[in-house]
């Protein structure tokens, strides 16, 4: 009998005597390559899609991101600060930085957070910039490839054709072009000092992945280490920014003096667009949905937005009465600017009085901007995970896809699945993490 890839991996980790060895290897290389941490559960069974489906969906996501990039022009007549205020970046020091650096051209890599519902893929947020996480999964994919090769060599009737995309293949090509244009360059991954010492996982993962893809040495450092790098190296320094300008303000602009002076003198070359953080505000999704009600978008753009984005509203005094009238069990309250599942309240996990009180607080003018988004009920995915203690766990909760892209280029996918049924599916909330692979049929 011909098995699908999904059936094969479920059966493999349930019955195959080689399952323990592969699971241990996945845990080891996941931690070694900075894809995961030893205290995270790991999703052993990859999530599978056909290649044609992935191509269709990522083509739609590429079109949607072009619309997102056009929002300052379409909705705010190119007034950057008006756009920044509208999506929750209201700090005047930030505005000064944005205006000074707006002409600097950089990359806008992104990771779409998506739930696969009965109506297709639904975007619940988009993360833009250097701090996307989940990049270094090549070694994990290689383990799956090796396992398939071993099994098919001993079983001629087993026919599996799987492929995958490296999360840094799309970015590394652009970086290579930049390096070729610079004078005796080195590449350095830089994160804000506080973030770096609190959790260096992302910066180290990015540096490791870029070093492998580009076959060069890549350091990961806190921003306060830039001065030493620039002093010691006789040539240009290409900086891959994990930090955003919010971090610059929080740490103090003076601590980033080496970075900004280096940009002016051309000692430092930037990789990530300084405006990228503006486009990761969750308020973007609310603005897009609101724009479908006006005359600024054409029919195909409206259809694209409605097919991909669930109902989403800004929370303010004008919308408060309407939002309080909705069935709270079908909605999610989120801070517009945030990550890691922080400042997220699932209506079905709280009572009506608490929900209404939270809405009222979020609607206050002195509260950071929030959105309310319609709950997306995902398709259940049967999986097998392994806990940090080595226990196998079967689960059939919906998954959150992390789809990496740079403009039209697809950069692979990672997966998160709550093992407890929690509405917040985040690695910081002990969700299991794994990878997405593609089949030809």
Automatic annotation (TrEMBL):
Protein name (record): Circularly permuted type 2 ATP-grasp protein
Organism: Marinomonas maritima
